[in-house]
Amino acid sequence: MPHGLDDVEIADLLSLESSILVARHKPGEAEPKLRRALELVTDALGDLHPKTLRTRVALGTALAMLGRHREGAILVESSAVLAATALGAETPMLAQLYDGIGAYWELSGEMGQAAEYSQKALKIYETAFGSNNHQVLVPHGNLCGQLGNLGRIEAALVHCQRALDLASLAAYGGGFNLGDVENNFGAAMARTRRWEDAEEHYEKALKVWRDTLPAHDIRIALVLSNLAECDAALGRSLRAQQRYSESLQLRERAVGPAHPLVITPLVALVHLLVARGDVEAAVPLAERAVDVATSTGSPLDLARSREALARALFRRAGQEREATRLIRLAEETYTGMGELTKPDLERLERWAEGSQGPRRGRTRTPSPPTP
């Protein structure tokens, strides 16, 4: 740490380092830095200063990424209450806090709450800077993805296009934002099953990120999974398998083999292998996904992993009862999570009604779940 800095400046540097680590999906390395930053900024500025609250939210987000959702929720929810009661004025610093709270809720799968805070941030930024300032890019881009996940596609596409217009300007392009927007735009298209349109945006995101990021950056792995989903939906199963495998390898290199980010490609590979009839190759991948999800994943990760394992086991003689048990557990989770998991529940119901599902008639095996 450079000499001659006061405590707030040191805290700012620690927070910056932590944000880079979190972006690289290394929350375990970020946590001690954020705890030290929070201690410094609290002592220097007090509990109610926007910097203190932002640091609390950042720490809560890192904890959620580590699977410690209850600890993270306590920090984030208390920060939201303090911000609403103590800060009052709708300043850009408050909007930055709202951006962070929205990111936390998105990470936790609560897209409705995430969109609520992104809308608050957008309103403050537009009031402070106008609708064409680069500050509004982040909430527009966030709303593009959040509303898309909620199934509010028309509203999502408005924010997607606005974010894309801003990110495409020379002054705001900078690689990172443009790739984020293209990826979110693709996700909104995928939600409406416009696979060719989704693929076009994902390809643009991949190009931007490959041109501007390290070769093993986690964002490249994420968009490869998205492209693989398009391949699977368009009947290109071998290409989908290749891309999911590449995405899995990149994720393992970036975050390790037991990180919850490996679950999406594992589950998707299971779906592809089961559809091809290669159950023996699918079962160990599904079991690994369940193990990782049980240890460090979210409830949705675990539900999707259980569904994948159930599909594989159901094709094995004598495993129907265990498959049915896993399906029921996954269905309970999907049902309880509402609009966010509606596509998962619909996929599960289609499978259960077919010959591949428990004691029902025949249907086509659907595409793997969206990451």
Description:
The protein is mainly alpha-helical and about 375 residues long. About 75% of the residues lie in helices and about 0% in strands. The chain has 17 helices and no strands. The chain has helices spanning about 5-25, 25-45, 50-65, 70-85, 90-105, 110-130, 135-150, 155-170, 175-190, 195-210, 220-235, 235-255, 265-275, 280-295, 300-315, 320-335, 340-350. α7 (about 135-150) packs antiparallel against α8 and α10 runs antiparallel to α11. About 50% of the residues are buried.
Largest sheet: none
Structural class by helix and strand composition = mainly alpha
Topology pattern, helix = H, strand = E:
HHHHHHHHHHHHHHHHH
- Count up the helices: 17
User: How far apart are the termini?
Assistant: 38 Å
The total of beta strands comes to 0
Strand content: under 5%
Overall form? globular
Portion of residues within helices: over 70%
Mean of residue pLDDT values: 85
* Estimated radius of gyration: 21 Å
Which runs of at least 5 residues are low in confidence (pLDDT < 50)?
Answer: 170-176, 360-371
Task: Looking at this protein, list some descriptive labels.
371 residues; mainly alpha; 17 helices; disordered C terminus
